[in-house]
From TrEMBL:
GO terms for biological process: DNA repair. It comes from the Bacteria. Keywords: DNA damage, DNA repair, Hydrolase, Magnesium, Metal-binding, Nuclease. Residues 48-340 form the Endonuclease/exonuclease/phosphatase domain. Signal peptide: none annotated. Residues 1-44 are annotated as: Disordered. Its cofactor is Mn(2+); Mg(2+). InterPro entries: Endo/exonu/phosph_ase_sf (IPR036691), Endo/exonuclease/phosphatase (IPR005135), TDP2-like (IPR051547). This is Endonuclease/exonuclease/phosphatase domain-containing protein. It comes from Sorangium cellulosum. Gene3D superfamilies: Endonuclease/exonuclease/phosphatase (3.60.10.10).
Amino acid sequence: MTERRLPPGSNGSTPEDTAPERASTSAAPGGRGGGEPPDDGATPLRIITYNVRYFGHGTRGIASTSAAITRIATTLARLSPLPDLVCLQEVETQSLRSSTMNPRWHPEETQLDRLMTELHAALAQRERPERYVAYYFPAHTYRLTSRTNIYTTGLAVIARDTFRIGHHNAERPHDITHRRRVKSLKQTRICAHVSFEHESGQSFDVFNTHLSLPSVFSREFWTGEARMGFGPNQLEEARVLADFVRRERRSDNFVVVGDFNSLPGSPVDRFLREEIGFVDAFAKVRCLSESEARAFPTAGFMNLRMHLDHVYSSERLQWLDFAGTQPFGHRGDFAGLSDHVPLIARCRLPGDRG
């Protein structure tokens, strides 16, 4: 599956003659209005990256639930301003895990189909005219039989339907996996890429990824004080990722987001920032040191709290705020919906179109 554009009759869209005016994405930080308008010629964008744990957090990842999909869709629809782009990690297609507790509404339905149906229904209920297009990027499939999957893995990119799609690799996502031992058992890691043209005429690229955990076969895993982002396998995947971004980006305006399974200040993070030149948007906006950024957890496992999710970009983007982003474990709109919290960022594209 690549593009999932739902027909008006099935997504709860409201008639054009009764729809309210489209909400501006240039609201003040926090999305409550009253902020300064963007600079002349600048284009504001609100971008979310979110590991949704296969919509199965309530069952500790064992099975997806319809309640989780509905709650996440409803929470996204309540955001003000609404996001322009939503990049998701850990999204399924069809499997025993995705449908055992969440029966499909029709035989071909996938998790992303259901999410989009729920998102558009929630927007219609709030009398919002905005609609979105979604792309799914398959990563790995664990099969029971040729027709039955135990579970699947993948990424998704959801974008406003006012954006023109210049290119995407949904049919063949780029494999970034570092494989040395037990190659047949290693879960495939990928990078999704979509090149957009904004309604203003600006072009920009979005790269969405999910790096492996540090390998337990490396010496660093057992001898170092920190592990996340310190694995040699992770650093190799970061190198492949950076090379892919360099080769495939269609413009100088790009973001690289996702679950990097890497701490701020780790070898992976420093490689991407110091050697490749990516900007860490969160640390830049909040004026945080590496240790201060580590103290803001984006994910939790048992009693551990870790900063694993990142928003990197080219230097051309002007980052404005991360309004609506809450640390994992704190109260907030997305609390309890996943073992990660979303990073909700707002930036401006450069004013020129060159």
